[in-house]
Amino acid sequence: MKFSSKILKCQLSPVRKFNPCADQAVAAGRTIYHLNIGQPDVKTPESFYQAVREFREPTLEYAPASGLPAYIDAVRGYYAKLGVKLEREDILATSGGGEALEFIMACILDDGDELLVPEPFYANYNTFTFMSGGVIHPIPTSADNGYRFADRELMTFGAMIVDARHKPTADDCTMAQWYRDAGCPFVVVANKLDKLKKSEMATRKEEFERICAPYGCQAVVLTSAENGLGMDELRALLEASMAAEDED
């Protein structure tokens, strides 16, 4: 059988490679800490097992492609508690995070596109990237610097992309602090401007300016990838930053 060039670029799974070694170590009486997988460490709710035991449908059918309505509503409810408002069409149900990553890579990567990933990273990033035609470039990190890769020497300017439909969240503050700690100036790009009412635009921009300015944010730009609004302003900011870097 002749294998495709894409599959030949994929590395053998390091997890499968080391599993026999781990089994031998356990057999020898050693303790193994499995950091290779996000294994749940919280108790499974009894209601889950009860629902399985009480399932009486004659056929276990495929779920709707968009996801079970009860699940979609549960996801919306979870994010609503975090201050993020989502509509049903904003949520795409997948069979785990792996399938979600595959979909994302297939949607955004063209042949030859390059992807920067801090290392160590989830091993399947390699597979998902190569299968989508991309090229992965690991950025080595270590415990000595807290696994940070955004040192001043590596990053000179950043664009923090957020969803303009939602108010600033704690995660946005964490990301802004990350830029500040790296000593990297940045701008906030609030995308999906076309989803906002005109009366909401100025308010949303002021909210992000107020939250992000203390962390060194240089500007908040409202944009829309759908109709191109704000792209000229964003392009001018990026070009000005690159010109200043060249002068330095």
TL;DR of this structure?
By secondary structure, this protein is of the alpha/beta class.
Classification by helices and strands? alpha/beta
What portion of residues belong to β-strands?
5-15%
Mean pLDDT: 86
Instruction: Give the overall silhouette.
Output: globular
Q: Quick one: biggest sheet? A: 3 strands, parallel
Termini Cα gap: 55 Å
The rounded Rg comes to 23 Å
Order of the strands making up the biggest sheet: 3-4-5
Task: Report the count of strand segments.
Answer: 5
* SSE pattern: HHHHHEHEEHEHEH
Low-confidence stretches: none
Binned, the helix content reads 40-55%
Q: DSSP helix count? A: 9
Structure, explained:
With 248 residues, the chain is an alpha/beta fold. 42% of the residues lie in helices and 12% in strands. It has 9 helices and 5 strands; from the N terminus they run αααααβαββαβαβα. A 3-stranded parallel β-sheet has the order 3-4-5, with helices on one face. It has a two-stranded parallel ribbon with strand order 1-2. α5 packs parallel to α6. The longest helix has 17 residues. The model has no long low-confidence stretch (mean pLDDT 86).
